[in-house]
Amino acid sequence: MIDVKKMGLSKPEVARGIDPHKPYRQSCLSIDGPAISDALYAHDIAILDAVGGMPGFEVFPVGTDLATTGTALKEFCTDRGATIVETGANAIEPALVYLRDRLFLIWGGTEETEMGLIDNTFGPGFDASNDAGLKLKDLYITGLVTDVPYANKDDVIEGGCLCLFVNDTTGAISVGAAGGSDDGVTEYAITGTTIINVGEYEDNAGDKYVTVDFVC
Amino acid sequence: MELVTLKKMGLSKPEVARGIDPHVPYRQSAMSIDGPVIDGPAYSHEMVILDYVEGYPAFNMLPQGVASSGETGIANLCTTLVEYVEDRGGEMPTYNEGANEATVIAAFFAWIRERMFLIWGGAEETEMPLIQELLEHTMDAAFDSGLKLSDLYLTGLMLPDISADDSEELTKGGFLGFAVDLDATSDTSGAVILATAGLPTGTGETFDGWTFFPIAGTTVVDVYTKEVDSEDVTFIDIVV
Prior knowledge:
The structure holds two protein chains of two kinds.
Chain A: E1 3-4, E2 9-10, E3 24-25, E4 30-35, E5 45-51, E6 54-58, H1 66-78, H2 92-99, E7 103-108, H3 116-122, E8 127-135, E9 140-145, E10 162-167, E11 173-177, E12 185-189, E13 194-202, E14 208-215
Antiparallel strand pairs in A: 2-3, 4-8, 5-6, 5-7, 7-8, 9-14, 10-11, 10-12, 13-14
Helix pairs in contact in A: 1-2
Chain B: E1 11-12, E2 26-27, E3 32-37, E4 47-53, E5 56-61, H1 73-87, H2 101-111, E6 116-121, H3 129-135, E7 140-148, E8 153-163, H4 164-167, E9 176-181, E10 192-196, E11 210-214, E12 219-228, E13 231-239
Antiparallel strand pairs in B: 1-2, 3-7, 4-5, 4-6, 6-7, 8-13, 9-10, 9-11, 12-13
Helix pairs in contact in B: 1-2
């Protein structure tokens, strides 16, 4: 039989948060799974992949500059059956088309270091605990902490797209918002997203971050 | 002015019950549609294309290329795909035989992306003598239940065209997609099957001459085999 695994209201396989007994609205748009190659935290954006016959999440493959990050993203897609003819930095956009519906927002990040037994069994480097990811589709998310520099808060375009920032020099990928990048960073829009509101968050150390509310 | 009505969401009893217990409520949502298959009976595990018949949702079978005198199966397939889209107001690249088959086929799969439905409750007119008699095999008037190939985590999807031996080649974490036989000399040229990345298409392999067309955004999370009627059959779990 074909079995639809995710739909409706349920208690997720791994309860988390203040009240572990609270039922969460889960749907086919949310997936529980481990981070495959590195620990993930809430507010991260990850790529859905497979591990051990189950869904898992991958961090973005990156290179050492814009071109090699493009090559890494292209390789990630072509290893999974995609055809991309563009090379270097030009491969980033077509790769993100293939990956658009595999982008998940981690909203319940856990880490193996919080779990002594798992940490000992698997060793550091593999996040064996399950994270909860939300498909970036049909959601109204508020309070997403971005990697937009706080000094650029007023530059973020309300009505613009949530973005992935790729550093031209280092190739690092981070979560951004249209208009909020520094010089030397290229913005790649996550299509279909709409930033509704821009806000800020101050952590216990007094550091300030730019947050966005968005619909996707 | 009439209200807009949302026809499908939540738990309900489908219009045409099926299976052993006709009274069991099925979980339905806006992602599932009941409708007949227009051009042939469809069974569970088949991928079909949403269309319409007499004002209602309905499904078309996936077009297949058929060789005939003077036309290869591939040419027949490409011509059919172009007509299918253009008849519905879409745009397709102009087909140039021997020059751009892969481009035409890829454009077709991109156009039907949001119209792809998976049959998970297949019915057939041969099971229903009255319908069979009235419609004389011209249409599968029994309703099938289709799931939109979007926002689902599905387990146990059968790949009947891929053997258990070849299943070991399929890529976990790869894309779901379609494979098309682009070998003009093959007996099955123009054939279209559901497949995943990693399909053995190399020289001398089972699907030599075939080309895989991935569906963007899909993820195959598991590949395995199960014994069905004394034969090992390939199954996959997917997130789409």
